[in-house]
Structure formats: structure tokens, C-alpha cells
Write a structure and sequence with these properties.
Belongs to the NrdI family. By secondary structure, the protein is of the alpha/beta class. The protein has one domain: Rossmann fold. Helix content is 36%, strand content 21%. The chain has seven helices and seven strands. The strands form two sheets. Strands 3-2-5-6-7 form a five-stranded parallel beta sheet, sandwiched between helices. The longest helix is centred in the C-terminal third of the chain and has 18 residues. Bound molecules: flavin mononucleotide.
Length: 162
Amino acid sequence: MNVAAGAADVAGATEPAGAADSIGAVVYFSSASGNTTRFVKNCRLDDLGINAYRIPLRANEPALAVREPYVLIVPTYGGGDARKAVPIQVKRFLNDPDNRSWIRGVIASGNTNFGEAYAAAGRIVSAKCQVPLLFTFELMGTAEDVDKTREGLARFFAGANA
Ligand SMILES: Cc1cc2nc3c(=O)[nH]c(=O)nc-3n(C[C@H](O)[C@H](O)[C@H](O)COP(=O)(O)O)c2cc1C
């Protein structure tokens, strides 16, 4: 199992580099098409002191364990089928009660061509995990989406840490 920075807080062991100075974290999933990865990279979270962790794409990769407050960024799949809107990899990650206990908000992406199902994964995760849906964006996001997300995350974690 891949234990992300912040896990050391729980274990009481030496804290990995990056965890001490961070204001929060983003956990994201991105399929082979990589739109969400591009969006997250464009957000330059490192500069804001926000750690970024990617949920593995393939089942044979080590599972991700996160033990610090995070906002989930999730693309929507399923083509309108609500049962498949949240990618299976994200469901698996959130089914771990320890991972789930640290989620503080969700940002969802999608494609408005899917109409009512646009960014449905965000509404589903928000309801299931009882956290706010903070923002939605299309595909890899626009420059404006990136700016809004950077500002929003900085404000969100500043409030959470106040
Ligand atoms: C098979 C498939 C199904 C999709 N279903 C939806 C959907 O139901 N609602 C939506 O808003 N977007 C849907 N999308 C669009 C994706 O959410 C969008 O392309 C996203 O940017 C993919 O992110 P990724 O490249 O990081 O995996 C779908 C895309 C694919 C390929």
C-alpha cells in the first residue's frame, strides 16, 4: 500500500517531506485520456503548498492511502448511467473508511454533451460522503477554471485550518 504524506502523523513516525508545510491536499483520478491530470498540473498546487496524490489507474498498482485533509477531483464516466458515474478506482479508494474520513470537498469534471449527467460524479460523491461540491469544470478546464480552482482551494484550506 502506498501511504501518502501525512500518514506519518497517525503513525507518529517521521513526517515525510512536504507534509509539514502543506496547507491541504488534492486527491485526483484521471484515466488514460489524462484530462484531469493536465488540469491538476496546470493548477500548480505545489506553489500553493497543496499536496497532490493520484489514485492509481490499474488494479495491479499499489493502492493509495491518504491520511490528511483533501479535496477530491473526479472526472465523470458512465455516459449517463449514474451507477457508473464515479470511476471504479475512485469508489475503491473511498470504500476505505480511513481514506473516506479525510475527504473535505469534491470538485468534479465532465463534458456538457452528457446533459443532465454532466459532472454527475461530483453530486454523487458529495451526497455519499456529506461534503460540499465545490466546483465543476469541463474536460481539462479553461485558464479561468484553473484560476478559480487555485483561489478556491487556497481559501478553502485557509478556512479549514483557521
Ligand atoms: C466513456 C465515457 C463516458 C463519459 N461519461 C460522462 C458522463 O456521464 N458525464 C460527464 O459529464 N462526462 C462524461 N465523460 C467525459 C469525461 O468526464 C471527460 O472526458 C473527462 O475529462 C475525463 O477525464 P480524464 O481524461 O482525466 O479521465 C465521459 C467520457 C467517456 C470517455
